[in-house]
Amino acid sequence: MGLLDGKVALITGAGGGLGEAYAKLFAREGAAIVVNDLGGPRDGSGADLSMAQKVVNAIKAEGGRAVANGADISTMAGGQSVLDDAIKHFGRADILVNNAGILVDQSFAKATEAAFDKVLKVHLKGTFCTTLPVFKWMRENGGGVIVNTSSTSGLIGNFGQYNYGAAKGGIWGLSNVLTIEGRKYNIRVWTLAPAAMTRMTEDLARYKENPSAALTPDGVAPTVLYMVSDLSGDQTGKVLGVSGARGIREMRMMEMEGWKPPFTGWKAEDIVTHAKDIFFSEEDLKKSLRRT
């Protein structure tokens, strides 16, 4: 018996890297897979369905069930087609993993509107376009699990990734709303912040300097399997970071207790007086906030 027997999983960006690892592991655990990938290089140019088909062929060779989808998930028609293929070939949609993405890294001083729009379109809009039809289907058919891929670049920040960080931060915000709206329909929502050596990240400085410390996609995949399986129970609305440096950990927005000013108003100088109640101290940050 597999952890995902009888389930149907839709995975975007599954033609390689993390998405491919999720697809193959889910299939081994009994799920039928819609392998979505537009194909092409990591900057989002070009298209090649053979990447998705290669993963499908590998799954079938192991006795699994899978179908390739080469749609552009940054369009409403493309997102809808991922769901349509799941229903057409397997009759349902139990799991959605929004994993597709591109990189166009440059420092903010060199930013261009085109690079900003391109990255947000794939990551943030792509997550929206794929999730909307699937969320509606799950709402009418007993629920499901959605995993949205964020990043420490969006949750914490990273040099040279103003567009990627903005998109990934937006995905986290979208997940928070989906958690609230999906709860009464038995739709569980997770946010994942993974760090692994893939073709998207292989030339990043931290991996060049210490490649042995980087997780492989296969190293991240079991955490995602936990998220989408019954092992995680009824948990929803949580963010898990997964990396070679830090392992697996929950990440949260934190708030200080704060200072409640009088309704009669306050002066800017009052913030200085009550700073210890408003701001985290350096000691608080050392204890609670750590970088990947």
Topology of helices and strands:
Layout: E1 8-11, H1 17-28, E2 32-36, H2 50-61, E3 65-69, H3 76-90, E4 95-98, H4 113-140, E5 144-149, H5 152-155, H6 162-182, E6 187-194, H7 205-209, H8 217-228, E7 238-243, E8 247-251, H9 268-273, H10 275-278, H11 282-288
Helix pairs in contact: 1-8, 3-4, 4-6
Task: Give a short summary of the structure.
This protein is α/β, with parallel strands linked by helices and 292 residues long.
General description of the model:
It is a single chain. The protein folds into two domains: 8-251, NAD(P)-binding Rossmann-like Domain (Rossmann fold, 3-Layer(aba) Sandwich); 254-292, no CATH class. Helix content is 43%, strand content 15%. It has eleven helices and eight strands. It has helices at residues 17-28, 50-61, 76-90, 113-140, 152-155, 162-182, 205-209, 217-228, 268-273, 275-278, 282-288, and strands at 8-11, 32-36, 65-69, 95-98, 144-149, 187-194, 238-243, 247-251. The protein has an eight-stranded mixed β-sheet with strand order 3-2-1-4-5-6-7-8, sandwiched between helices. It is globular and about 70 Å long. The model has no long low-confidence stretch (mean pLDDT 90).
Main features:
single chain, 292 residues, alpha/beta, Rossmann fold, eight-stranded mixed β-sheet, 15% strand, globular
> Which stretches are poorly predicted, pLDDT < 50 over at least 5 residues?
none
Integer-rounded radius of gyration: 20 Å
CATH architecture designation of the largest domain: 3-Layer(aba) Sandwich
CATH class of the largest domain: Alpha Beta
User: Could you tell me how far the N terminus lies from the C terminus, measured between alpha carbons in angstroms?
Assistant: 36 Å
Percent of residues in helices comes to 40-55%
Total DSSP helices: 11
**What structural class do helix, strand and pairing data support?**
alpha/beta
Strand order of the largest sheet: 3-2-1-4-5-6-7-8
Number of strands: 8
Let me know the average pLDDT: 90
Reported by name, the CATH topology of the largest domain is Rossmann fold
Approximately what portion of the residues adopt beta-strand conformation?
A: 5-15%
Instruction: Outline the biggest β-sheet.
Output: 8 strands, mixed
**Could you give me the name of the CATH homologous superfamily of the largest domain?**
NAD(P)-binding Rossmann-like Domain
What is the string of SSEs from the N terminus onward?
EHEHEHEHEHHEHHEEHHH
The total tally of domains equals: 2
Shape estimate:
globular
